[in-house]
Amino acid sequence: MIVAEPKPIKELLEMVQDFNKILVIGCKGCVTVCNVGGLKEVGILASTLKIARKKDGREIEVGEHVLERQCDPEYIDEVKDIIDDYDAVISLACGVGPQFLSERYPSARIFPGVNTKFMGGAVEHGVWSERCAGCGQCVIHYFGGLCPIARCSKSLMNGPCGGSSHGKCEISDDVDCIWDIIVRKMMAQGRLDELVKFRPPKSWTTARDGGPRKMVREELVI
Amino acid sequence: MNDFKPQIVAFCCSNCASSAAAVADGMKKTLPDNVKIIQVPCTGRIEILHLLKAFEQGADGVYVAGCQDDSCRYISGIKKAAKRVAGVKRILEEIEMDPERINIFNLCAGQGQRFVEVAYEMINRLKEIGPSPVK
Amino acid sequence: MSEYKAGSNLEKVLKAGHFAFTGECGPPQGANIELLKEKAGHLKGCVDAVNVTDNQTAVVRMSSWAASLVLLQEGLEPNFQMVCRDRNRLAIQSDILGVYTHGIRNMLCLSGDHQKFGDHPESKNVFDIDSMQLINTVKTMRDDGKFLNGKDIDVPPRLFIGAASNPFAEPFDFRVYRLAKKIEAGADFVQTQCIYNMDRFREFMKRAVDMGLHEKCYLLAGVTPMKSVGMARYMAKQVPGMEVPESLIKRLKGAGKGKVAEEGIKFAIEQIHEFEEMEGVAGVHLMAIEWEHRVPEIAERAGVLPRPQV
Fold first, then answer.
1. Phi, psi of B101 (to 5 degrees)
2. Would the CB atoms of C114 and A153 count as touching at under 8 Å?
3. pLDDT > 90: what percent of chain C?
4. Per the CB 3.0–4.6 Å rule, which of A5, A93, A178, B131 could disulfide with A151?
5. CATH number belonging to domain A2-118
6. What is the value of ipTM here, to two decimals?
């Protein structure tokens, strides 16, 4: 899933300080799963905004709405009859959501309510970890099914570097050295011969480096 | 000291805190009327939003009274509640309200005396902090 | 064509079978060319080539190619270092052409320390290619006369290709294979991380020799004299992939006040003597960090002077 974290309340309050009618829009996709932009979090943010504003003696009206997804135009349409009732919108979806809203409703003021972090998963309850860099050309099968592009701090294709220490990356003890894991796994599988094979430079044309990406699948286009 | 009567919402576990309340009742000890009790089957069911709603509606203080960490009827309900109370404390701090307006207490079923004490503890703390700015 | 791959002094010294002795010089954090000349001046005549670091520890300094040119003008042979952190493959290849054009003949290929440690942790890193691929890039440019896109180079750069190896980083069992991989990718010489755990290095070299790596590549053992007990502790705890045995820290402490630096130098000299005898070791790379002025004395006492003229 796409993993996001809440923006600090202070930052959000500053963003919307000039507005008195705010619509908070959540998303039932990834941000619900990572507990940052679902029904619950929409309620919490709405309540917090109201408390903070009341405290300062400034009334605020906060609407709450949760969309099936904010990355599909058909769901974005759902708020077309209510969005004009508000001065501003806070989207609790990943970076895609507020942009789809901005594109669909050109006159609306749309604000991002979360910081989108990475593509990853929950390694334990309340802990998420990055797994994919979206490079557009998956090569994990060369590396014991683990991705050095996303998970090595230097995206080394021929690691590990000299900074690997006790299974941890040189940048932080909180970061596992993925190359340590790759090497140990592949050696245990008896695949040393693959490990010592030189991996040539990767083409980044399919990654973000190749420019903003678009995908068309003719069989699905109506 | 001052005549401010803080309005307090207390979320109480029906397994321990409510039994303690009954014991307190038997001891002819009653809670002051400015403490409103909301009985819950387990404090683990209390969401951050429930706690916030109390503040949004103008409560001066909120507390959760639940089991001891090692004797929760639903094993980890009280620990979850403690984390959510901590979460609300963080939110209060962020919007520059005193995080001491919310607290959590661990009780046992037989502690009628303690049940009443924590209510007064909160009342006294809130008297020091003063009325909620959210009115 | 010449019998040499690049014809640098370092290559000639190694090829002639001499025990090589290289030094290191960090460019200044500014445009202080006089300071650079002074630091490099200490190394003159004491070493076969001088590594010129490339924004080491991700701290901004005078660019390594520019400082390398200054060394060339001062009559020293630079070993131009390049990291993959700050350049994409376009910049990498154009810098390679540029340094060769100006007379640089040695190049050490590194991934580079992550910018998180440095003085611009907010920066974006590149890592378009890694150190292994950088080694292979220089080799492809030199031996095949081709860029990474397969196009021909009009006058290919001829550089003596260096790589780094850390025998102490984990997983230990894989380290010698990674060295082999670097040699396969095109490394002509390898300089190791600073060595303090001699037992572990002996084991590493034994494995390297068993695999015949010393016959395919010149292996230079890394030596950094300890200046103080504090430095030893810092290296032991703070520098990733560095191994400093407790026995060495004890030995330095035992030297007593005012004599620790001398003990550090003594240990370094003992190491150099052992490396001279160790099978597969072709030389020593002396990294006297901010201690360039002590290099002549260390070289003299280690008995590596005068340097051979090839």
1. -70, -15
2. yes
3. 94
4. A178
5. 3.40.50.2300
6. 0.94
